[in-house]
Amino acid sequence: MPRKIVSTGRGGTGKSTFVALSARYLRPPILLIDLDPDLSLADMLGADFHREGKRTVCEVLYDVIAKRKSNVSPATTTHDLMESLLWSDSLYEGRKFDLITLGTKLTEGCYCAPDDLLRKTISKLSRSYTNVMVDSPAGVEHLNRNIVSDIDDLFVLCDPSQKSLKHVARIRDIIKQVGMRCSHFYLVADYEFDDVTEERLRHSGEVYLGKVDYDTNVERYNLEGRSLLQLPEDSPACVSVQRILAKAGYR
Ligand SMILES: Nc1ncnc2c1ncn2[C@@H]1O[C@H](COP(=O)(O)OP(=O)(O)OP(=O)(O)O)[C@@H](O)[C@H]1O
Ligand SMILES: [Mg+2]
């Protein structure tokens, strides 16, 4: 079974950066799942999704809805049609990792259909990978959507604010409410913490794994649209992420 890893937290705390850098150190084969509608993870990893002819899960869903309306392939169930299109059209296969992205909904309504599809197909798709890592949008809504209900390691990226600790408590509540399995719940400090504010996380009662150090290269690469896979190995953020993953038992 693959290790299922989720990066979550408030807006701008470095969730996507953490996932992109983790992709450098996790044991392959790796599947990355971007639940954030803005496709930022693909950009951070230099994966040109559209040039490769790939589409988001929502784009595929839109296609399936259109096919259903015009009664194309009536013998195939909607789920089978979605699943086969997901494999062929949405799975970006890279050298270091594979990637699927949820994308932005193109039709009115909620995410229920793609969520249901993702939930069912993720466990199927995941079987071929050693590590499956999810990048989440800001907030807790994605946990309510319960797309990955079976988490081995949850990394909660925190910023130095009271709101951040309240956010941690809300995540705990939601996990309980939706009956999600979460074997390990880890706190990670973002680059804004200093020694004094870090103490708060050390005494939060949760397992605190350390801080992702400030890294001017990360800022510059993101600004220039360069892949974080090209960051020098000794860059502060790379060293931090490696150290944090090692503390969580990754070798
Ligand atoms: N270690 C770091 N050092 C310097 N800047 C960083 C670091 N980590 C992230 N950043 C910067 O912080 C910003 C937010 O990072 P990122 O996109 O990873 O956060 P996020 O939590 O995924 O955001 P969102 O909530 O919008 O998805 C980016 O501009 C990024 O360059
Ligand atoms: Mg992000």
Can you characterise this structure?
With 251 residues, this protein is of the alpha/beta class. The protein has one domain: 3-Layer(aba) Sandwich (Rossmann fold). 43% of the residues lie in helices and 18% in strands. It has ten helices and eight strands. The protein has helices at 15-25, 40-44, 57-69, 78-90, 112-126, 141-145, 162-178, 195-202, 216-224, 236-247, and strands at residues 3-9, 30-34, 92-93, 98-101, 131-135, 150-158, 181-189, 207-211. It has an eight-stranded mixed β-sheet, sandwiched between helices. Strand 6 (150-158), helix 7 and strand 7 form a beta-alpha-beta unit. Helix 3 packs across helix 4. The longest helix is centred in the last third of the chain and has 17 residues, at 162-178. The radius of gyration is 18 Å and the shape is globular. The mean pLDDT is 90. It binds adenosine-5'-triphosphate and magnesium ion. Adenosine-5'-triphosphate is lined by residues 11-17, 36, 40, 138, 191, 212, 214-215, 218-219, 222, 237.
Most strands sheet: 8 strands, mixed
Percentage of β-strand residues: 15-25%
- So what's the overall shape? globular
CATH class: Alpha Beta
Give me the number of helical elements: 10
How are the SSEs placed, and which strands pair?
Blueprint: E1 3-9, H1 15-25, E2 30-34, H2 40-44, H3 57-69, H4 78-90, E3 92-93, E4 98-101, H5 112-126, E5 131-135, H6 141-145, E6 150-158, H7 162-178, E7 181-189, H8 195-202, E8 207-211, H9 216-224, H10 236-247
Parallel strand pairs: 1-5, 1-6, 2-4, 2-5, 6-7, 7-8
Antiparallel strand pairs: 3-4
Helix pairs in contact: 1-10, 3-4
The structure holds adenosine-5'-triphosphate and magnesium ion.
Adenosine-5'-triphosphate binds at residues 11-17, 36, 40, 138, 191, 212, 214-215, 218-219, 222, 237.
